[in-house]
Amino acid sequence: MIDRSLSNKLFRRAKELIPGGVNSPVRAFRSVDGEPFFVRRARGSKIWDVDGNEMIDYVGTWGPAILGHAPSCVVDAVTRAAKEGVSFGIPNPHEIEIAQMICDFVPSVEKVRMVNSGTEATMTAIRLARGFTGRDKIIKFEGCYHGHVDSLLVAAGSGALTLGQPDSAGVPAEFAALTTILPYNQPEAVEKAFEEDGENIAAIILEPYPANAGLVFPKEGYLQFLRDITEKYGALLIFDEVMTGFRVARGGVQELEGITPDLTAMGKVIGGGLPVGAFGGRADIMDYLAPVGPVYQAGTLSGNPLAMSAGLAQLREMEAQKGWERLETIGQSMEAGVRECLNKIGKNLTFHRVGSMFCLFFMEGEIWNVDDVKRCDFDAFTKFFWGALDAGVYFAPSQYEAGFISLAHTADDMEKTVTATAAGLKAAFG
Ligand code: KE4
């Protein structure tokens, strides 16, 4: 029996001081009917909890740890930067370097603004779309999560869905009324929305590969359809690549799919684990932002030298190591191991993977949107999660979350992951 007694004790204390004992809901392990462990430290592919249990980590702080935890290049860069000043609130050269790198990596991004979270990035992207087009309506898709932005926290994914609360209290009906929620992967629903109200729609925002309802892929031609219909009606296409950007490819999903959005929200990997978000796109749109244009946005710590140094170090290391090619190889190895486990027990569960992002769905058959995902066997998932965790592998504590492989995951980790996956499946299905 795994000892997590100190974690349990800390959690009791945390709940006296912090709502739900966590600073972000999905960490509370509510969807797996348990209590979270508390981490002591993390390095490479491993994490150690306060009770001394070692685990192979496939959450990777929800995406940023693409090199693994505490990579030397990032730690050294942050240490060097800190000695020069922790925060300035004054333009600094790091900001130009990371802006240049983002524009180089993502051709659709001609200008970029750094912020401090993915939520800030998506929130400002839709404000910019409204300011640029002079329109108010936004279209988003069920199951897509774009951070806790009032007008986007409607039929959201991730923690909102995990808690079974896709709509949040505190969002005025007037805000929600400006957000049209459509099913993902159903072009006819988008056509109808534009036919009825196209001249009032400022933008479509979507995760091009929805990864807050597991990991879902667009049907053939769907992203191009969205690009075409937004162009036809003068609305903007916003890709929320906070999770997929710099993760599934150097240039994100838009590189893989050859689609050029008008704006892109980014985050996670570009912060190297420090608080960073960014949004960018067409220069004519971005120049609507203050101080040049009429759309206001600001941030005390935006462009912070530590966060910029961390992101720059991580992106440079990924380039130097041809990281995206290597992650595909590691991902193939992991997928083969998982499928071998499924074959052994005669379960044809649906497994989606793109590069280093993956999701094992506890159901069989095709999955095209969040309604399909809702058909999963959540009880089996919960048993799998704890079975794998007790065997030393930490997968995301929700069926609605994706998993992340890093460059630090070794062949030995893969072997242990297969063993733990088998243990999880045994716990789930006997
Ligand atoms: P943050 O504000 O949490 O930095 O980013 C919000 C966000 C925006 N867009 C996408 C596609 C995202 O996945 C996220 C945040 N992702 C979740 C994990 N599914 C963060 C984990 C959490 O909420 O604790």
Describe the structure.
It is a single chain. The protein is α/β, with parallel strands linked by helices. It has two domains: 5-70 and 322-429, Aspartate Aminotransferase, domain 1 (Alpha-Beta Complex), CATH 3.90.1150; 72-320, 3-Layer(aba) Sandwich (Aspartate Aminotransferase, domain 2). It has 15 helices and 14 strands. It has helices at 5-17, 72-84, 93-105, 118-133, 158-162, 173-176, 187-197, 222-233, 252-257, 283-286, 305-320, 323-345, 370-373, 378-390, 411-429; strands at 39-43, 46-49, 54-57, 111-115, 137-141, 179-182, 201-206, 236-240, 263-267, 277-281, 350-354, 357-361, 393-394, 403-404. Strand 8 (236-240), helix 9 (252-257) and strand 9 (263-267) form a beta-alpha-beta unit. Helix 7 runs parallel beside helix 8. The longest helix is centred in the last third of the chain and has 23 residues, at 323-345. The protein is globular. The model has no long low-confidence stretch (mean pLDDT 96). Bound molecules: ligand KE4. Ligand KE4 binds at residues 24, 26, 62, 117-119, 122, 145-147, 158-159, 207, 212, 240, 242-243, 267, 277, 401.
